[in-house]
Amino acid sequence: MTLKNYNSQGASVSFGTSGLTGKVLSVGGVEQSREAMEITDLGIVKNGAKRFIPADIYDVGSVDIEFLFSSAQALPDIVAVAETITITFPKATLTGSSATFAGTGFIQSRSTPELSVGDLMQMSCSVQFDGETAPVYS
Known about the structure:
The protein is mainly beta. The protein is built from no helices and 9 strands. The protein has strands spanning 12-15, 24-27, 36-38, 52-54, 62-68, 83-88, 100-111, 122-129, 136-137.
C-alpha cells in the first residue's frame, strides 16, 4: 500500500522577489470563484428552475498566511510590486515530489503581532493573486 500524506507538516510559502521569510504557522486555503449569470427569461414556466451560465472570467483568489514573528525580521511590504508566490505542499508519498500552487500576487493586508505576556509573537498577511500570472496547481 502506498503511503499518502494528509498532514500539513513540510508545507511552505516562498516569495520570489522580496524573499519574505519566517516560520510559517498556517496557510489558508485559496478560494477561486466565478460568477453565475442568471439567464432566466420570461418564458419560464411557473415552478420552473432559474437558468444560469458561467461568467467568462473568474476571481483568482487570495490566501492568508500566519508566521512566527521576530523583531529582527521585516514585515511584509505593503507597497511592494507583485511577485511570484509559491505554496509548496508536503510530499504525498515518500518518493514523490511536492505539489505547488504558484502565481503572481501582492500583499493586500498585513498585521503586526499582538504583544502579551507568555505568548509568542505572530504576524499575518493576506496575499491577493493579481491574475497576471494566474495561480497554477502542479
